[in-house]
Amino acid sequence: MEQHMRKIMEIQDISKTFFSKKGMFTAIEDVSFDVREGEFLVILGPGRCGKTVLLNMLAGLIDKTTGRVLLDGKEVSGTDSKISMVFQKLALMPFKTVQENVELGLKFSGMPKSKRQEISQHYIDLVGLKGFEKSYPSQLSGGMKQRVGIARAYATKPEILIMDEPFGQLDAQTRYSMQNEILRIWQEEKRTVIFVTNNIEEACYLGDRIILLSECPAKVKKIYEIEIERPRNMISREFLKLRTDISDNTDLAI
Ligand SMILES: Nc1ncnc2c1ncn2[C@@H]1O[C@H](COP(=O)(O)OP(=O)(O)O)[C@@H](O)[C@H]1O
Ligand SMILES: [Mg+2]
User: Are residues 98 and 192 in the same domain?
Assistant: First the structure.
């Protein structure tokens, strides 16, 4: 791990308990970890363990029951433009073109049209959608829609990109190619990525580090530093060893 990496985000003892008429339910319990500037950090955990709840707290979109989330030393709030999200089910606007979808966040910030177009074109090119600027989401494949979501998230130039199982609904072949694409984009753009998945192989392929969560309520089980050089070979001995170590430490068959 490079030594100059500073902590960009600090997650300190956060918990989340939901209260309802039926009683209370704890989804996250005393989770702490740091995020290093520029890293590709993977959060890995079983389905329904609390990953989305955790991400929403990191982004300041829901309240924490306990703990603090600091970005550059300051507590995160939901209106923080320094954080941008990519979701599994992309909320693309069906009656807007690729370009209009990518420009959405910029439009909200009141940026003039010519500047918006310049930025959106850069990110459309970056994600490999040149020529599809005027297409509508319904005309795109699943992988291409994810590319739009990624371009839209990068276009606002956030400090941190949070991606919530972005490839969960893609077929296996598209998923592999998008894994390579997201690494290429991350290497070109040099922004911090927090990537959530329930797929061990995907986590081992992508991450500089992996935060392994337990089943619900989610706690940090172990943090893995991954030294395997990229591009990683999924059938190399060191890759399979890491994958097996993590499987052995995992609560459910995920
Ligand atoms: N608003 C809510 N009220 C009550 N329970 C919730 C709420 N949001 C999520 N949960 C529960 O928290 C648990 C974790 O959910 P989630 O974070 O979506 O899991 P995943 O790891 O699959 O992303 C689930 O059992 C879910 O039902
Ligand atoms: Mg989820």
Answer: no
Average of pLDDT values for 83-98?
90
Alpha carbon distance 148, 137 (integer Å): 9
What number does the ligand 1 atom closest to the CA of 45 have?
21
Are residues 245 and 120 part of one domain? Answer: no
Identify whether residues 178 and 73 lie together within a single domain: yes
Pairing of strands 83-86, 160-164: parallel
Q: Name the domain count of the chain.
A: 2
Q: Which domain holds residue 198?
A: 1-82+162-254
pLDDT band at 163 (very low <50, low <70, confident <90, very high): very high
Nearest atom in ligand 1 to the alpha carbon of residue 164 is 23
* Per-residue pLDDT reduced to its tens digit, 175-223: 999 999 999 999 999 999 999 999 999 999 999 999 999 999 999 999 9
Per-residue pLDDT at 26 exceeds 50: yes
Please report the sign of the dihedral spanned by the C-alpha atoms of residue 225, residue 227, residue 233, residue 236: negative
For residue 107, what pLDDT band results from cuts at 50, 70 and 90? confident
- Looking at the fold, whether 203 and 135 belong to one and the same domain comes out as no
Which 3 state secondary structure label does DSSP give 53?
A: helix
Residue recorded with tokens 């199982």:
165
Identify the residues whose C-beta falls under 6 Å from ligand 1: 18, 25, 27, 45, 47-53, 216
Closest ligand to C-alpha of residue 50 is 1
Structure tokens at 206: 């992508």
- 75-103 b/e (C-beta count within 10 Å ≥ 16 → b): ebeeebebbbbbbbebebeeeebbbbbbb
Q: For residue 165, report the distance from its CA to the centre of ligand 1, in Å.
A: 14
